[in-house]
């Protein structure tokens, strides 16, 4: 990292002493980085290599893993439960992009520039301070059969409300709603920071040219928000792909496997069903999808930023 | 320079944290004496009872150093991991069925054949219990506890609606019809954890041989008797005989409040009912689940959880001695009175009149003992059943596709076993 940050050298021989002086610095920098690199290798890369190995084995957590080639991947892709998890994970990715990100942007834009906008944003931000499990518990009280929502609907004369947490895919949708309740505020905060960093002059110029409201947002504000949007959307994609805690707290992936996502399938296959090989295969698949989605998205977005 | 200092400090701090985490994992239970046994369990809530047991076992010089987990899944992986280290647990609780078979296959638990032989000679264990602990003719682990699966009922709801305690399946269904007509939900069921309960209750009473055959691969989920049971169950769901599965209120609370009139559960429900202030014999009673087909005779599902000794653990012999003591009258009297629950030891009298009444009925009523569905069946089949039965409890779909999937899974499992 430090090496790439070095400025280009002028093409003169006077740079030689400077190079000599820099070499020990480089070595000491590597020395300082080494513990961190080792820790990352030990805690991240090594487990991933181990998990990848396990995904090629039959293993119940006891004794020694037995190599079975790609059998676990074959089993995974032909399992109806896995395909259902894949569908739910896709719902989560799309839902998270539309709701927490979209709503966050909406709140940020509406509140931006208003007097006391902090106070408008604050209520949306507070749920972010709660853990995912607690959010799940709160929303279970609201959404369970005969829960707060059903009681409220009964007051309005709705006697046969939907079975929020029992019917699929409705249960996934309402849980995305719970995640939105928690996540929209922080996205709003990030977008607000983005809005604050936009230079005022082009906006003023656009206003002078007669742009306002939706046109101003679409043609000026939104394009200038791109760097921040990239980060928010990137985080949302990764976060939604590995969504676990809210679902675990609300439905445990059930009834049956109807609201499971890949993260839950991975956990259940490994630790509940003791099929470490299958769980590892799901883990590898999830990692590949997450990394691929992040890299593809970020590369495309950041390339666009560089060109502009 | 500042940045490098911060980096160095952070690195040092994370290294220190890592080292601290490593060093804190070993808890020194051996404090000089060889009689403090490292004991691990996923029944964290039972710590007070194990404290009581320490008071009883202390005079003999053996006590347990208790470590309780409340998350069963995390506990299972912890135990498995511990066998890969030098820190093999002296004593730990586990599950019967294929989970215990896995440990036995790997030679990780100490054999207890001699303890069982002695206990049977002394009449400390009921007939049939040994089967849960036998692999290739040898025994491993001893029973930590047992629970009988029976029907709990709300006495006030029964009295208010003029319902007598049923002794046959037909009487029970007539009672359910009467309760339903009076606006009371007759039965409890849930779509998680115990989603198999009614399958077990109905099939053991309709075709016990088929129920047992499923555990060995000798009978099929496509057997007409299984379909008959599923149809019966479906008609009961369709008739509104069960609570809404989306309600997350505890079964003990629902039974106590009369939200349901009856709940089919293991006798561990007694402790949970006591916790919510329901009194045995006053607020609730217990009766054996009547057989769906009277020709099947009386059936009683017995659930048992093992207490195991880690093979090669530091205090292996002391832990085996403790296991032998655990089955004794002294230990079981103390355990039963501390837990307020039944004991496997037939010499032990339970204080609770309803539980004792159930035990007396089981003793005198010519019951055949069955294993609980959860432990009795191969883990992959059981795991799939949580999905199938969970969905069935929730939506009562046509049972055949689910049964087909269970049968496919079972065939796959038994084929792998050769």
Describe the structure.
The complex is a heterodimer of chains A (308) and B (418). Helix content of chain A is 72%, strand content 1%. Chain A is mostly helical and 308 residues long. Chain A has two domains: 23-47, no CATH class; 71-134 and 168-307, MetI-like (MetI-like fold), CATH 1.10.3720.10. In chain A, strands 1-2 form a two-stranded antiparallel sheet. Chain A is flat. Residues 1-15 of chain A have low confidence and may be disordered. Chain B is α/β, with parallel strands linked by helices and 418 residues long. Chain B folds into two domains: 34-146 and 303-362, D-Maltodextrin-Binding Protein, domain 2 (3-Layer(aba) Sandwich), CATH 3.40.190; 148-302 and 368-416, D-Maltodextrin-Binding Protein, domain 2 (3-Layer(aba) Sandwich), CATH 3.40.190.10. Helix content of chain B is 48%, strand content 15%. In chain B, helix 8 crosses helix 9 (208-216) and helix 17 runs antiparallel to helix 18. Chain B is globular, with a radius of gyration of 24 Å. The N and C termini of chain B lie far apart (67 Å). Residues 13-33 of chain B have low confidence and may be disordered. Classes of the chains: A mainly alpha (308), B alpha/beta (418). The interface between A and B is large, with 33 and 39 residues.
Outline of chain B, from the CA principal axes? globular
CATH architecture of the largest domain in chain A: Orthogonal Bundle
Number of domains of chain B: 2
CATH class wording of the largest domain in chain B: Alpha Beta
Oligomer: heterodimer
Order of helices and strands of chain A: HEEHHHHHHHHHHHH
Q: For the CA atoms, what is the radius of gyration of chain A?
A: 25 Å
Helix content of chain A: over 70%
Structural class of chain B: alpha/beta
């Amino acid at each position: 990292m430090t090496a790439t940050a070095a400025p280009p050298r002028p093409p003169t021989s006077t740079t030689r002493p400077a190079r000599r002086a820099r070499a020990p610095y480089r070595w000491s920098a590597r020395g300082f980085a080494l513990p961190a690199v080792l820790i990352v290798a030990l805690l991240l890369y090594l487990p991933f290599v181990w998990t990848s190995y396990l995904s090629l084995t039959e293993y119940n957590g006891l004794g020694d893993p037995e190599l079975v080639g790609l059998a676990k991947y074959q089993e995974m892709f032909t399992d109806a439960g896995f395909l259902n998890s894949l569908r739910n994970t896709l719902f989560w990715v799309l839902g998270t992009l539309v709701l927490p990100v979209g709503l966050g942007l909406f709140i940020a834009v509406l509140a931006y520039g208003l007097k006391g906008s902090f106070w408008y944003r604050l209520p949306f931000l507070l749920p972010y301070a709660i853990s995912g499990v607690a959010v799940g518990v709160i929303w279970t009280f609201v959404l369970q059969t005969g829960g707060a929502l059903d009681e409220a609907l009964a007051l309005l004369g709705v006697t046969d409300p939907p079975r929020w947490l029992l019917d699929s895919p409705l249960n996934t949708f309402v849980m995305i709603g719970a995640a939105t309740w928690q996540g929209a505020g922080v996205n709003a905060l990030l977008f607000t920071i983005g809005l604050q960093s936009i230079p005022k002059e082009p906006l003023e110029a656009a206003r002078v040219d007669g742009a306002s409201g939706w046109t101003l947002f679409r043609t000026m504000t939104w394009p200038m928000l791109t760097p921040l949007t990239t980060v928010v959307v990137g985080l949302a994609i990764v976060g939604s792909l590995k969504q676990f805690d809210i679902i675990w707290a609300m439905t445990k992936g059930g009834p049956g496997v109807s609201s499971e996502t890949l993260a839950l399938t991975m956990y259940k296959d490994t630790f509940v069903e003791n099929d470490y090989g299958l769980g590892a295969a799901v883990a590898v698949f999830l990692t590949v999808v997450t990394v691929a989605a992040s890299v593809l998205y970020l590369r495309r977005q950041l390339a666009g930023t560089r060109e502009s | 320079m500042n940045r490098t200092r911060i980096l160095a400090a952070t690195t040092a701090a994370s290294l220190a944290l890592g080292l601290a985490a490593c060093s804190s994992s070993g808890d020194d239970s051996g404090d000089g004496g060889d009689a403090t046994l490292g004991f691990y369990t996923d029944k964290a809530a039972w710590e007070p009872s194990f404290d009581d047991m320490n008071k009883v076992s202390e005079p003999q010089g053996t006590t347990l150093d208790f470590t309780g987990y409340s998350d069963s899944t995390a506990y299972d992986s912890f135990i498995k991991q511990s066998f890969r280290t030098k820190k093999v647990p002296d004593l730990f609780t586990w599950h019967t069925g294929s989970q215990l078979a896995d440990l036995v296959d790997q030679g990780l638990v100490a054999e207890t054949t001699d303890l069982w032989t002695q206990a049977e000679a002394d009449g400390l264990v009921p007939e049939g219990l040994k089967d849960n602990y036998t692999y290739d003719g040898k025994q491993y682990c001893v029973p930590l506890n047992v629970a009988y699966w029976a029907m709990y009922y709300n006495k006030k709801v029964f009295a208010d609606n003029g319902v007598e305690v049923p002794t046959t399946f037909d009487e029970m269904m007539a009672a359910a019809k009467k309760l339903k007509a009076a606006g009371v939900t007759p039965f409890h069921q849930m779509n998680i954890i115990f989603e198999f309960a009614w399958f077990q209750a109905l099939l053991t009473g309709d075709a016990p041989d088929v129920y047992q055959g499923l555990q060995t691969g000798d009978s099929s989920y496509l057997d007409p008797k299984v379909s008959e049971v599923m149809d019966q169950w479906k008609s009961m769901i369709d008739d509104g005989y069960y609570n809404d599965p989306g309600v997350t209120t505890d079964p003990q609370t629902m039974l106590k409040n009369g939200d349901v009139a009856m709940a089919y559960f293991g006798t561990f429900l007694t402790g949970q009912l006591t916790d919510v202030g329901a009194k045995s014999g006053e607020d609730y009673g217990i009766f054996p689940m009547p057989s769906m087909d009277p020709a099947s005779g009386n059936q009683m599902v017995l659930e048992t959880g093992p207490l195991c000794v880690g093979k090669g653990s530091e205090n292996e012999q002391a832990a085996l001695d403790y296991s032998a003591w655990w089955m004794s009258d002294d230990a079981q009297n103390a355990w039963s009175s501390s837990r307020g629950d039944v004991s496997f030891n037939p010499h032990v009298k339970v204080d609770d009149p309803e539980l004792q009444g159930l035990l007396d009925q089981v003793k005198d009523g010519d019951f055949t003992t069955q294993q609980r569905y959860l432990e009795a069946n191969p883990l992959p089949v059981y795991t799939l059943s949580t999905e199938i039965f969970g969905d069935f409890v929730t939506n009562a779909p046509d049972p055949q596709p689910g049964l087909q999937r269970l049968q496919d899974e079972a065939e796959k499992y038994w084929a792998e076993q050769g």
